[in-house]
Amino acid sequence: MKDKSYKKLELDKILAELKKETYSDMAKEMIDNTEFSQNVDEVKKMQKETSEAAFLIRESGGISLNGLKDVRGPLQLAKKDGTLSMEQFIDVLSVLQAQKRVQNFFKDDEIYESYPIIMNIVGQIPSLKNLTVKLEKLLDIDRVDFKDNASGELSSVRKQIKNKRSDLKGRLEKVKRSFSKYLQDEVITVRNNRYVLPVKAEHQGEVKGVTHDYSTTGATVYIEPESLMELSNEIARLTAKEEREVERLLRLLSQDIKNENEGLKQVLQYLVELDFIMAKGSLAIKMNAVEPEINREKKLDIIQGRHPLLGEEVVPVSVNLGKEFNTLVITGPNTGGKTVTLKTVGLFSLMTQYGLHIPADDGSVMAVFDEVFADIGDEQNIEQSLSTFSSHMKNIIGILENASSNSLVLLDELGAGTDPTEGSALAMAILEYLHSREIRTIATTHFTGLKNFAYKKQGMENASVEFDEKTLEPTYKLMIGIPGKSNALVISKRLGLKDEIIETARSFIGEGDLKVDELISSLTKKEKKSEELKEDIERSKAEVNNLKARLTKKEEELKEKEKNIIERAREEAAEIITEAKRQAERQISEIRKLSSKDSHKEITETSTNVRNELTQTKEALEKELNKTTSKPIDPSELKPGTEVYVKSLDKPGTFQEISEDKKEAQVQVGLMKVNVKVKELYPYESNDQKGNTAKQYGSTSGSPKENKVRSSKLGVQKAGSMSQELDIRGHRIDEAIQKIDKYLDDALLAGLNSVRIIHGKGTGDLRRGVHFHLEGHGHIKNYRLGEKGEGGEGVTVVTLAG
């Protein structure tokens, strides 16, 4: 029963296509011996492994299992202490090399996440590296022989044979020239592993030697010249010695195969399994098939399913079962694709439970049945005899005896082949039996009575294949919810049958039947219009989603461009300000060098004004740039430890606490805690968000001493460029103090722990002025004169507060 159903559903043809995708005969055997699974979890796993194989083929072309030979016989022979032939050893090496290619292909650990099932199989394959290396070193696959250096003895004897044969050929050429007038042709040939001359039969007495063979006609005698026999015998002796050495090596290697017998069996087993899986993936790609969703509720929902054996012109069919109804009755005329629908559903079910993908659209849902039963007769029988009816009934009886609530039953032209009245009644009884036992059933019939039966029965549904009355051809589109109607009168009229005959026929049809047909026709038109409207809506929806996605992408691109422009503007502004400062400082320095002491006050004032103007320019630029930045941070988002940007200070900091009126906040900026207005706080972009390196912004990792100062972006930039020394030699005290204050501010911001102020020894006035200023200074912890190696009394070492 089972095998008959599978053949009717043409699973054997699909498996034949699957075999074409394999490398080895063993994988073909595996295909023949694999049963379709009735376990939901196992089916899901088999589907996943097919998906992995298909993805692997699409991404990298798949894995090559070329050379995967059936070496089960040689392995068994070695296990029984037999000696393998050279050809068998070459086959074993081919298998090991296929295994090596697979393991090399999957040696990247990162690939595991994409192919967990395949990688699990690969991970279980024994390496057998030593045996592989040994066979590769000894065997010459192209010559199917041992390499000359396989052993010292073999190398030596083959060199001798080579030299002897060279000598023999030289002598043979001389002999050939001396007997040329007796030869049939000039070609030297070999008979019984001996070099011979083709001598004309009538002159065979002229050439002394041993006759080894005659031509078919007897006109040519193949003679080994007497003068060459001794050398030939020597070659024969060396050849026998070579054969003994080869036989010895074969016995030794056979023992190696015996020692690794179990490992080799496992290698073979897993490679064949991979061959089978990769074949499934390859077939899925060729069929443009997808992995269906698998459910435990016996629900089917095939979306645009394409029967894989009907070619590219097949019309897709969408059909569902098991959700709103368990029994589907497809009615209508004999032509139109009802049988194709049945076969598609049945074949897809078998393919799914075999681990094969189905040629349908994504989102298709398949169930796992304990069995799929099908009674599908020969297509388009012109005559159906009693024997045909009996044959169908025998199949159906077998189905009814074996089907369970976990089965799928497919019945084609149910009740056909007998009296319409009895056939219709029998069909309804069979459907009632199956339906009452909750057996998922799809049946086709051309009996009108079954339409009303399916309509009235809870959990049953009608369906039909659409028919185009203009072209008089079926569209093969399945319409669930609408029963089929007879198109005999319409077709007859279009073909030219007289109207009076058509009208007479209508009078013979009951009024109720005509109204039903008119209702079905109306429903069909409405269904078609509804489908067209649905397709229009789906197209519009897709266009809207596509437009929305494009707009979102465009918006993101514009934001990114705006951000990049602002960042570049900031960088350029900073460079302009820095360069302007450098120029101003150079100009001030030059003025001081050229000026007299009397004009020092004016120069100092001018210098201060230049610096103030630069500062104002910097602030104006930053204010302009900050107009396009993000909005101030929402006070509700402020939590202790939140990283913020303090706009007024142009520095990042860490939020500490907020005032009761929510207007002021305390922020840790470097070593200082400052109170600022909440509206001055902006979200701070971290290193990851900006895409910058930790080095650019500073790091909070490292030793406690390194973590003492939390460097800001500006601080790290300063730390990378500023010196730990300030040279104020030659400056007046008031001028030196101004430089010291600015230097200490920068040093704190840069996160320096200590600095050196070089004031020189001189009269000591400058040193005393510096110490007086540093006494009680808020930015320093302590100060001292330099030690011997630090500059002595000419330097003051300052430890910054921290």
Q: What is the compact description of this entry?
A:
With 802 residues, the chain is α/β, with parallel strands linked by helices. It contains 24 helices and 25 strands. The strands form seven sheets. Strands 12-13-14-10-15-16 form a six-stranded mixed β-sheet, sandwiched between helices. It has a five-stranded antiparallel β-sheet with strand order 20-19-18-17-21, with no helix packed on it. It has a four-stranded antiparallel β-sheet with strand order 3-4-6-5, covered by helices on one side.
Give your account of this protein's structure.
The structure is a single chain. It contains 24 helices and 25 strands. The chain has 802 residues and is α/β, with parallel strands linked by helices. The chain has five domains: 154 residues, MutS, DNA mismatch repair protein, Chain A, domain 3; 100 residues, MutS, DNA mismatch repair protein, Chain A, domain 3 (Orthogonal Bundle); 217 residues, Rossmann fold; 81 residues, SH3 type barrels (Roll), CATH 2.30.30; 81 residues, Ribosomal Protein S8, Chain: A, domain 1 (2-Layer Sandwich), CATH 3.30.1370.110. It has a six-stranded mixed sheet with strand order 12-13-14-10-15-16, with helices on both faces. Helix 23 links the parallel strand 22 and strand 23. Helix 4 crosses helix 11, helix 5 runs antiparallel to helix 11 and helix 6 crosses helix 11. The longest helix has 84 residues. 28% of the residues are buried. About 7% of the residues have low confidence.
